[in-house]
C-alpha cells in the first residue's frame, strides 16, 4: 500500500506524477503522429494511378451458380486480358460443365455456358 506522506511531499509527489504523465503523453503523441504520417504516405503511394499493373487486377474469371443468377466464386483476377483468357481456358478445362465469365468491371469479354441437360 502507499505510505503516508507529509502534505508538502504529497503535493510534490502528485506534481511529479503529472509531469511524468505529460512526458509519456507527449512521447505517445509523437509516436502516433509519426505512424500516421508513415501510413498516410504509403496509402498515397497506393493511390498513384501510375502504380504498376499488379495493383490493377480488373479482369475477373467468375464461376456462376447453375441458374446464372449470382457469382459463386472468383476463380482468377488478372491484370491483362491475355492472362484472363488463359485463366478462363484453364477453368473451363478443369470444370467443363460449369458456367464461367471473363469480365472487366461490368463489361463481358467472354462467356462459357455449358449446354443445358437435355440439349
Strand content: 15-25%
- Decide which structural class fits the backbone: alpha+beta
Fraction of residues in H or I helices: 40-55%
Strand order in space, largest sheet: 2-1-3-4
What would you call the shape? elongated
Outline the biggest β-sheet: 4 strands, antiparallel
What is the helix tally?
2
* Beta-strand segment tally: 4
- As for the number of domains, it is 2
Query: What gyration radius follows from the Cα positions, in whole Å?
Result: 30 Å
Spatial gap, N to C terminus: 87 Å
Question: Spans with pLDDT under 50 lasting ≥5 residues?
Answer: none
User: Strand-and-helix sequence, N→C?
Assistant: HEEHEE
Task: Summarize model confidence as the mean pLDDT.
Answer: 82
Which key terms come to mind for this protein?
elongated; 2 helices; 119 residues; single chain; alpha+beta; four-stranded antiparallel sheet
Summed up, what is this model?
With 119 residues, the protein is α+β, with helices and mostly antiparallel strands.
What would you say this structure looks like, in words?
- There is one protein chain.
- The chain has helices at 7-46, 81-94, and strands at 59-64, 71-78, 100-104, 107-112.
- The chain has 2 domains: 1-51; 53-112, no CATH class.
- The chain is α+β, with helices and mostly antiparallel strands and 119 residues long.
- The N and C termini lie far apart (87 Å).
- The relative contact order is 0.10.
- Helix content is 45%, strand content 21%.
- The chain has a 4-stranded antiparallel sheet, with helices on one face.
Amino acid at each position: 500500500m502507499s505510505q503516508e506522506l507529509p502534505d508538502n511531499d504529497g503535493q510534490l509527489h502528485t506534481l511529479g506524477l503529472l509531469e511524468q504523465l505529460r512526458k509519456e503523453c507527449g512521447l505517445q503523441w509523437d509516436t502516433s503522429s509519426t505512424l500516421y504520417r508513415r501510413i498516410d504516405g504509403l496509402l498515397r503511394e497506393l493511390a498513384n494511378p501510375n502504380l504498376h499493373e499488379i495493383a490493377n487486377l480488373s479482369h475477373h474469371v467468375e464461376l456462376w451458380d447453375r441458374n446464372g443468377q449470382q457469382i459463386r466464386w472468383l476463380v482468377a483476377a488478372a491484370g491483362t486480358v491475355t492472362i484472363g483468357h488463359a485463366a478462363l481456358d484453364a477453368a473451363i478445362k478443369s470444370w467443363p460443365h460449369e458456367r464461367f465469365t471473363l469480365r472487366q468491371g461490368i463489361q463481358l469479354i467472354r462467356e462459357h455456358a455449358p449446354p443445358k441437360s437435355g440439349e
